[in-house]
Structures are given as structure tokens and as C-alpha cells.
Design a protein that fits this description.
By secondary structure, the chain is of the alpha+beta class. It has helices spanning 26-38, 90-104, 125-130, 161-164, 183-197, 210-214, 239-247, and strands spanning 3-6, 44-48, 54-60, 68-69, 73-81, 109-115, 134-138, 143-149, 158-159, 173-177, 202-206, 223-227, 230-233. The protein folds into two domains: 3-160, Gcn5-related N-acetyltransferase (GNAT) (Aminopeptidase, 3-Layer(aba) Sandwich), CATH 3.40.630; 163-247, Glutaredoxin, CATH 3.40.30.120. Helix content is 27%, strand content 27%. The strands form three sheets. The protein has a seven-stranded mixed sheet with strand order 1-2-3-5-6-8-7. A four-stranded mixed sheet has the order 11-10-12-13, covered by helices on one side. The protein has a two-stranded antiparallel sheet with strand order 4-9. The chain is globular and about 55 Å long.
């Protein structure tokens, strides 16, 4: 498999694996704009040359859009290999490239979000364990911070206190999200419209800066949905999923 590193020089012509369409699509333009603004912060987006969901996205942890304390670690935003790309060792290729790059930059190790059981849009815990990752912290909602150290006696990453007990003080549905996930550009307005149409209390909080994301009341900032103060899911809602949730 040939891999391509997306940079500010080639992002206009390269496909973005998590949103495969033309640049006029709101999902693609939103994701590419977010990536373009992160390259100066050290973000790396490495993907398959072939079109499909096969990529890794990572960034120095101090610049991650998550409430974590992980000095001199590299944080993996997303490692996603799906469809026909699964089962060929591409996840290992991408992870090894991240490890090699991170070591060359003097990092202590890697960290990534997951859970004890696989959750949508989070890393596969069985794969992480197989690759030597270990759990170093866990929030009250079961979201875990995993790490892979490059040496002995390194300081462990951890969640900031604001994210240890995910909650909000507001009633109704409250959604925290960023533009890191391209699907939000399309579907957040959709569920806002549904909530308005059905007179359901709904508030979307778009985290637009690293500082806002690093102080959010949730370890997952790409998409965290609360109801009456309680965290309920990180799974992105389209119209059908949201209507099904309302029925419950």
C-alpha cells in the first residue's frame, strides 16, 4: 500500500478519507478547513493513496482538541481502516508510521481515546491492547485514555478534572462538537432543525478553538451529546438516529 501525507501544499487535490466527495461538499470543505488550520500545530494526516477509509490523524498532545494532560506525548485523533482495507495490516502500517515519526520528534509515547468495549468512532480496544497500549485514565462515562510509552518511568497522561465526570448544568439536549469530524457540518444543522420542529429543548455548542475544546466537560469533544445534564453518546446523529433516540 502506498501512503500519502496530506499537507497544506496538497490538501486541495487530495481526498480526505473520512469524507470522500468533491471539495464543494460541506463535509469535505469543513474537514479540510479544520485540517489546514492545524498543520502549524504539528498535525499529521497520513492516508492510503487509494480512495477509501484508511488513514491516521495525530497531533502533539499539547495541541490536541481534548481535555487531557499529556506533556510531550503524541495524541492520535483517529486511526480508521474500514471496508475492503481491513485485514491487510494497514492499521499496523499507519500506527508504525506514527510511532516512528513520534520517536523522531522526541515524544514520550502515544495516547488515544477508547473504551473497555468498542464504541462508535473510537479506537478498537483489542487492537490497542495487542499493540501494547494500556489504560492510564478513565472518565465516569467509561471513556478511557490509553497510552503507549516509548520508555520506562514516563509520566502517565490523564484527563483534566473538567472531563473526569462528564456533565452539564443545562436541561434538555446539549451537544458539544468540533469541526474535526466532517459529518458534523452536515448533520448538526439537521438535528437542530428536527428539535426545533418538534419543540424539543436542544442546544449545540460548537467548540471553535483548542482552548475551548481543552476545557470542555467531556473527554470526547468531536461529538458529545447530553440529556438533562447526563452524557448519553458520542455517536454522530443523522436524522434517522436522532428520531429513534427521541422515540426512546
Amino acid at each position: 500500500m502506498e501512503y500519502i501525507k496530506v499537507t497544506s501544499e496538497n490538501i486541495d487535490k487530495e481526498h480526505i478519507c473520512c469524507a470522500i466527495s468533491n471539495n464543494n461538499d460541506i463535509q469535505v470543505s469543513s474537514k479540510k478547513a479544520w485540517l489546514s488550520e492545524r498543520f502549524e500545530d504539528g498535525l499529521v494526516f497520513l492516508k492510503s493513496a487509494e480512495r477509501g477509509k484508511c488513514f491516521i490523524e495525530y497531533i502533539p498532545a499539547e495541541n490536541a482538541w481534548n481535555p487531557i494532560l499529556a506533556d510531550n506525548y503524541m495524541y492520535i485523533d483517529c486511526l480508521w481502516v474500514a471496508g475492503s482495507f481491513k485485514g491487510h495490516g494497514y492499521s499496523t502500517d499507519l500506527l508504525n508510521a506514527c510511532i516512528e515519526d513520534s520517536k523522531s520528534k522526541g515524544k514520550k509515547g502515544l495516547c488515544i481515546l477508547a473504551a473497555a468495549k468498542k464504541k462508535p468512532f473510537l479506537a478498537e480496544p483489542k487492537f490497542l491492547k495487542y499493540k501494547g497500549f494500556r489504560v492510564c485514565d478513565e472518565a465516569d462515562n467509561g471513556i478511557q485514555l490509553w497510552y503507549l510509552p516509548f520508555g520506562e518511568d514516563v509520566e502517565l497522561p490523564k484527563f483534566k478534572e473538567c472531563a473526569k465526570q462528564p456533565h452539564t448544568d443545562e436541561m434538555g439536549y446539549v451537544l458539544y462538537y468540533t469541526s474535526q469530524c466532517p459529518f458534523n457540518a452536515k448533520y448538526v444543522p439537521v438535528i437542530e432543525s428536527i428539535a426545533k420542529e418538534k419543540s424539543i429543548q436542544f442546544k449545540a455548542i460548537h467548540l471553535r478553538s483548542k482552548e475551548e475544546a481543552q476545557n470542555a466537560p467531556t473527554p470526547i469533544t468531536t461529538y458529545a451529546l447530553f440529556l438533562d445534564g447526563n452524557y448519553i453518546t458520542n455517536e454522530q446523529m443523522n436524522d434517522k438516529r436522532f428520531l429513534k433516540l427521541l422515540e426512546k
